[in-house]
Structures are given as C-alpha cells and as structure tokens.
Amino acid sequence: MSLAEPTAPATFVPAASINALRSVLQQAILGKNEVIELTLACLLSRSHLLIEDLPGLGKTTLAKALAHAIGGRFVRLQCTPDLTPSDITGFSLFNQKTREFEFQPGPVFSDVLLADEINRTPPRTQSALLEAMGERQVSADGRRHVLPETFFVIATQNPHDQHGTYPLPEAQLDRFGVKLNIGYAAPQHELEMLQAAVGDATPTPPRATLDLPLLAALQRRVANLHVNSAVQRYLIELAHATRTHPQITLGLSPRGLLTWQRMAQAWAYLHLRDFVTPDDVQDTAEPVLSVRIAQRAEAGQNVLREILETVPVPPAGNIKHGAFQ
Amino acid sequence: MATCSQPRPDFTARLLLILVVATSAVAADYAAISQDHSKWLLSIANASALSACLAVHLLFPKRPRLSQLLLLLCMVSPFIVQLLSPFIGLRHPWELVLLTAVRNLAIWFALGKPIAHQRASALLAICVLIFASCIETTHTMAMFVAFAALGAGLWLLRQYWAALPPMLRRASSAKYPYLRVIALYVLIAIIIACVFLQQPAASHALAGFFPSSGGSFDADPNATGGLNDAGGSVLDSQTPSGTGFSKNASSMDSNKPCLYDIFTESYGKPIRPDDNGKTISLNQSATNLKRQKAGGDALDMAREFDIRRTLSTPPSRFRNQRASALFYYRGPSRHLRTGVYDVFAENIWTRSPGAAAYRPILRIDDRSTWMAPGFAPPMHPLSRLYSHEISTGLLDSAEIPSPAAITRFRIGLVGDPTFFALPADHVLRLAKRTVPGGTVTELTSILDDATAVGATPLATAASAPESIPPRITELAHRWTSTAPPGWPQVHAVLTHLQEEFSLDRHAPIATPAVLDDFLDRKAGPDYLFASTAALSLRSLGFHAHLVTGFYVDESQYDYLSRRTPVRAADVHTWLEVQLADGSWTELEPTPGYCLPGQPLTWSDRWHNASQFVLATLRAHAAMTFTGIAMLALIWRCWPPILDAALSTFLWTRSGGNSRRDAQRLLALIEWRARIAGLSRPAAISAARWYARLLPDSPNHSSELLTWCEWAQFSAPDAPSPVPRHTAIALRTFAIRRCTRAQLRDAHRFYQGNTA
C-alpha cells in the first residue's frame, strides 16, 4: 500500500486508506461520525486519545476497532486498582544462565496500547505512562528503551463520579490530544445495531486497513500542512483567553497549544485542505481544551463557547496581502 | 408580619432644594447682568422660559415630562443661540452660555422626585454659585452665596436625618430636631459674627483652634516670632509674653538648627526686597541708616520668605548688565503713553489746562502698597485686566511710560499715595522727582477687546472745532463719503492713511505748512499721521486727541530677561478716540505699527471661523452650490454609488492576481453585508458567516468561499484552487448576485428556516 499524493491542492484527496479506516470505524460504532472524525484527527496528529463516558456506550469497541484497523502490535491493558507501574513499563529479571539482569518489556512496548478504564488504577500507576506518551520512550534501570514512532495510546475512562475511580493527574491529561464523549446512539442506529447483532455469535475483529509506515507518512504529511501566521496568532489569543478567564483555574499550556495546532492541521487534512483555517481551530477547540483546562466548580458549561465567541477571528480582508491595493 | 411602607417624599427637603437652586439661578443671572446691562433682555427671556416651565410643572403635575422637556430645551437653547451668533448678531462669552445651561440643568434636576436627581441638582447649584461668584465679587453676590449656604445646610441636614437608619432613632416617628438645628445655626452665626466683627476675645479664642507656625500669638497685632504674624510685629524681646525666636546671642549662636535655617533649606534663600523700591520714598538719612544696618536680612526677624520652592536660575542679562535702553517692558501693550495733547491751534498741539489737574490716588489697603486711581475706568464686557512691569533704565523723566486705563499700580514698597500723580490725561508720573534708574513699576490695566470696542458707539461733538485746516476737513469728508457714520468713518480714515501714505521718519519739516507738505508728499513721520488722523476725526465730529509715548517693538524682545527694551528710537505718536461711555481707545494710523493683539476667546474663534467660511462660500457660490448638490446626492444614495464604484474598480482591476482578486471580492461582500446591516460577528469566520448569506447557488457559493479561504490562509506559493474561467464566473457571481438585497433575502430565508 502506498500513499496517494495529491496532484494539486484544488483536488486535494487524502489517502484512500483513510477512507477505509473511516468506514471500519463507522461500522464499529454507528451514528457517531463526528466522534470518528475527531478520532482520526487525533490519530493523524500523533496524539493520544482519551474516551470518557458511561459504561457500555462503545468506548472499548471504538478503541478496539481503531487498534485493529491500524495494524501493528496491539496490546490491551485492563487497568485495575492493583496494577503496578512495572506491570506497564516492564521489569528486569535475573538470568541465571547469563548471570545478568535482562529487561522484560511491558505492554507499553506496542504500536497501539488500549488502556481500558485507565482511571480505575491509582495515579502512581497512571504516571508510568507519562514518559511513554510524551517522549515515546521508557527509562528503566538507567537505560532508555525507545518505543515505535507510531505509538498510540487509546485510553478509556469512566466519569469521575463513578465508584472506584481515581482522577487523572493534570500532567497525564496534558499528554492526551483530545477527550471524546460518545454519548447515546440515536434510536435508528440502536435498531440497526440490534439487527446486526442477531446471528453474530462471535464478532470478528476488523482487518487492518492501515499499515504503520503509511500511518507515519500520513502523520508527517499532516505536520507539514501550512498554517498562516494569522491563524497562529488566533490560536495564541485563544490560549491567552483560557489563561486569563476568571472561571478557568488552569489554562492551556504551550504543549497543549502545539497539540491544538496539530489537531487543526489534521482536521484541515481530513477536510481536503492543505492549509488551516480559523474554522479548523474552532472545530477542534472543545475536544482539545476539555481534556486539559480546569474550570472552577461554579463555572458553567459555556466557558469554552464564551471564549470562542469573544476572541475575534483573523480579518476577512487579509491585511498581509491587502485588498483594494 | 412586618409591613414595609414606602417612605413619603420629604416635601420640606424638596422645598429647600428648590430654594437653593432658585438662589443660585438668581445669582447666575445677577452675575451675567452685572457684566453687561444689555444682557437684561437675555435674562428676562431666560426667566420667562423658566417661569413657563415651572408653571407647566405646577399646573400639570401629572405630566412632569412636559416641563422637563421644556427645561431641557432651555438648557440647549443657549448653545444653539451661541452657534447661530454669527448670523443673528448676538454674542456672548461661552462661559455665560455654559453657566446658563448648567443653571437650567440644576432646575431640571430639582424638579425631579428621585433622590439622585435632587443630589445632582444640589451639586449643580453649588457649581453655578461658585461660577457666578467668580464672575461677580460684590457684596450682593456674597449675600446670595450666604443665603444659598443657609438653605443648602438645612437641606443637607434634612437629607441626613431622612437617611439615618431607623435603628438609630429613638422611634420611627421621631420628629426632625428643629430646635437643635436652629441652635446649631445660631452657634455658627455667633462664630462668624465674632470673627468678622473682630471681637478680640472671641477672635483670639477661635484663632487658638487653628495651627500656627509658632511665635507669640497669631491674633496679636504686635505678635512676633512666627510666620504670617500680624503686620505690626515687633521683636520678641520687647514683649514679655513672646515665645518665638529672638535676636539674641543665645538663639543665634546655638548649633541647633533654627526655624529660619529649616525654611532656608526647604524653600531657598529669603527674598531681599528691592533696595531702590524701598529707598526712593525714604529720605537720605533713613536710607543711609538702612544701608548701614549690620547683619543684613539674615538677622532680621521680620524678613520675608517665599513659601514656594523655586529652582535656582542663572543670573539674567538684565540683572548683570548696565541699562542700555530707556526702560524695559513686560506686558501685552504696545503703546505706552507719556503725554496727551488735545488742543490744536496753528499747527501746534498743546495740552489743555484741565488735563494737568491731578486726580486722587488711593491706597488699596494697608497690607500692600498697591495704589489705585480714585476714578474707575470703564470696562467693557469682554475687556480683561493685564499686568505690566516697567523697569526704568536710562529714562529720566517724571512720567512713567504706562498703558491707558490703569486700575492699580505700585513701585516696590512705596506706600505713600502722594508720591505719585495721576493727571486727568491718565499718564502716571512721580509727583516731585524723576523716576530713578532701576525702578520697577508694576501696573494693572484694562485692555479693551477690539470687538467690544467696535460695538460701542463713538462720542460725538456738537460742532467741529474751527482750527482744523480746511484741506484736512475736505480730505476727511472725501475719504468718508461712502462710509456710514460712526466706526466705518474712522476705519475709512485710517485705511486711507495706511494704504495711501508711507512712513518717512526723516522727512524734512517744512513749517508752518507741515501738514500740507505731508499731504502733498504722502510721506512723513508718525506724528503727522497721528495729527492728520486726529484732525480728520475731529472734522467728522468725533472726539480725538494726540498721544505721545513709546512703541514696544516685539522684535526687540529679549528672551533672557523676558522683557522688551524700549529705546529712544521707539518714541511714537498715535491718537485716541473717545467712546460714548467716556473711555478712550487707541487708534494707530501709521503704517508699520499695530495695536496689541489679544488672545482669542472661543467666541472669537468661532465667530472668525464662521465668518471665514461664509465669505469663502459666498466667493465660490457656483462651486458651493454644485458641491452641496453632490453631497446631497451622495448622502441620499451613497450605498449604490459607492457600490457601483467598487464594482467598477473590481471589474477593471481584476484578473492579474488570483489571490488579490479573491480578497477583493471578499472585501466587497463584507462591505455589502455591513451596509445591509448584516455585519459579520468578529468571532465567526467569513466562510461560516457568508455560507448562509450568499444567494442560493451552492456551487458558486461554496467555490467562492473556498477560493477566499485559500486567498486568506494558504501558503503564499500555493497554486490557485480555481482555474481562470472559474475565477471569472465567481467574480461575476460575487458582483452581480451577492448584492445587498440578495444578502438580506438570504438572511431572511435563513432566519425563517431556523425559526
């Protein structure tokens, strides 16, 4: 499989494998096209995905479908309260034959890691993923173990008010690209789901539609998408607004700003554009910001909307190029 | 369950407030009237309008809006009248206009029932009172202020009582403490009476409440030792009750800092009074005694201090050099008078015997050496007082070159009025000696406003004197044959002299036919100009006389000494003409000389600007009419005109640069949307906003918006997403279809769908 490079921006078409991946996800979870698009954008932006919702709404199904569709080595990690950090990163064993300690890699050494119900494990164990998610490497016993370039973490979590959950630390949250809520499906999609389940005793996992080299190439392509300086200034003003808003206690970090720009690039790529517009920034604002900014308890649900409706977008008549000159 | 009743409006408080506001209004009118009696008409009109408003307010209590609207009109009307002043001939200073407007606003607020209105009314009434008392400082105004203060104090107490929380009262029905208020006012009245009636015991007791700088006792007329002591201070050693510093060895030899050292460090060295100013009124023995005084001012307990902090200034040229001019002048005047000649006979100007009669000179008060003439010169409404300073140099005369209409003057510490003389010609001089070199004379005089003077009629004589040469009489009548009587005749004479004659300081004097020679040659020195003008005006029936003195040439101004030296070459002659109110005003017939300019008031600037505009419009009537018609046309239908212009511009200038074309199209659409009242919100992108506003042509709309997005945000070297023929189609679509009407229709359709 090879990446189909577009011939011209006017007919800009992403790789056909993206469409195939989209189809796989649409078959796995019905009627959630926006969630699927954001999931794809997260994958292409080389971020990590956090899915939060009530049990049984399809978090694990979406994560498994994505993991299988990507291909590569897939590991599922069921996070439990007794999980230890070494259970994730690996540990050293004394080899009686060689009389040396040998490192036994943990499940984090994979291409796609599904950390199911991540907030059911204590923060000490959650923190074992920090280095792997942020720098794509694991340091153990003074040695550095590099993870694959396309290392991708899909984590699911239950809402905080559920029993037996621990809140994710802010440093952990900041390393996720987006946080998605799936929500209940529409009645017609639930009917379709029920009809498809009849007679399907052992559902087969979807086949891989994307190999890892192609995914890496797509991620590089997304990273090279043009971002106008006006759009970057718009991003900065939005970030500044989150830091100065009276109802927000933790604003957007510079790492979060980088993640937001990359998400906007991926969003533009998925919408067949080779440049980023303010609409891409606005469309990816809520999933990107909701995972990493902290609001006051008394703050309403419309703080992010208020920020987006307050900060002006770059002017229509591009000052840089100048209209009516 | 307790019931909360609405507090009843305090009728007494409202009455008191209306009383205060009415007092301030009357004071404002009094201040305006006192400036110019011609304002009676305006004041009567104002009073009538306000009375009508009050009548409406009382007769129709259920329609307060009507009276308030009328009062608002009253508030605005002075400004309208002032703006129309160039056209209707009425002119008032902007200060009076503002005062009238504020006064009406205070009354408008006083009629309102809300407490906020009443407070605003009280505040405005205080402003009006302060303003009025600044304009007019007579005893009558002081009575107005006192009456208003009495009412305002009662109103304030009433408000305070009404605002007290009920818990602080003994009962909710506690009555207003009239007796205590009256007692308080009586106490205040007693205090004021004690202070102003100068009852020694009471004054001393009250003065003890105020801090002093030390010394024996402030209220003691013979006190000493502290600053601001009474004028008759004596040495502390002479009064056994003194507690201040004394000139004895024990205090001066102490190593501890004394009060004077502290003041010297804080405020600089003490002022040394001008020796010349102090000594010229003393006899020789007293002068010598004063100069032999040991220790200088540093040991003088009664020396003066400047409480202002001043920076050290380098010695000026004026102080360090010997005088090179007759005198040095600082002030606004250009003509300084030394003599007046009002009798002309046989080509000779002389002074009338009555002109030498001295007028009385009064000392203004005992605390200063300011003198004032016993007769107050008339002051026109727009005239102002200006300060002058004349430092005598080489001038050796008894006359002090001074401006006309002196209101006060002083020379240093000379406090004897008999030292000066002020004849009827109003030329200040020393009575028995010449002015010594270095004498600094300070004066305050009235400088007339040219506009106000021009509006004052001239005094006329019953018949022209017979001594006027017939040739000048004939010439004057010929020059003024087309001018209406009065000031136009004066201006005609001056204009002819200034335009047809030239100044020749060295013209030969051909006596006795000097005036004939001047009229023949049309050139001569300045006194011939002044003589000709004065005689011409006399022949026309006006009172005019010749004035000699000095002309202050501003080009000689010395910025180091901040004075203008006046030398012998600046001797000048001009004339004065008498007005109907008895005052005299300067006229300058000699070319090259001019009367002093005055800083323009806002009224003058507005008047001058409007006159200039009117004159320009009249001079270019055709162009003005065409311009007004075009402006009216553009004003009536400017969106289509501008739209057509922009569209034409786009048609003619497009096709070269795809990115620029797209940006221009987007700018056009943005402009049309703004004109249509559908401006794009700042936080919504153009693609999202216009996706629902553009006409229902999906392909073109989406393509156009994609093109515009590319033009805005794509990489500079990115190729255009639309080929050339598509770009032409999109341009046609944007210009012809995306009109204001189409945008409005699309918006209406979108709103209908979303609803």
What does it look like?
With 325 residues, chain A is α/β, with parallel strands linked by helices. Chain A folds into two domains: 174 residues, P-loop containing nucleotide triphosphate hydrolases (Rossmann fold, 3-Layer(aba) Sandwich), CATH 3.40.50; 94 residues, Magnesium chelatase subunit I, C-Terminal domain (Helicase, Ruva Protein, domain 3). Chain A has 14 helices and eleven strands. A five-stranded parallel β-sheet of chain A has the order 2-5-8-1-9. Chain A has a two-stranded antiparallel sheet with strand order 3-4. Chain A is globular, with a radius of gyration of 21 Å. Chain B is α+β, with helices and mostly antiparallel strands and 755 residues long. Chain B has a five-stranded antiparallel β-sheet with strand order 9-12-8-1-16, with no helix packed on it. A four-stranded antiparallel β-sheet of chain B has the order 2-15-17-18, with helices on one face. In chain B, helix 18 links the parallel strand 13 and strand 14. Chain B is extended, with a radius of gyration of 39 Å. The chains are: A alpha/beta (325), B alpha+beta (755). Chains A and B meet through helix 12 and helix 14 of A and helix 23, helix 24 and helix 25 of B.
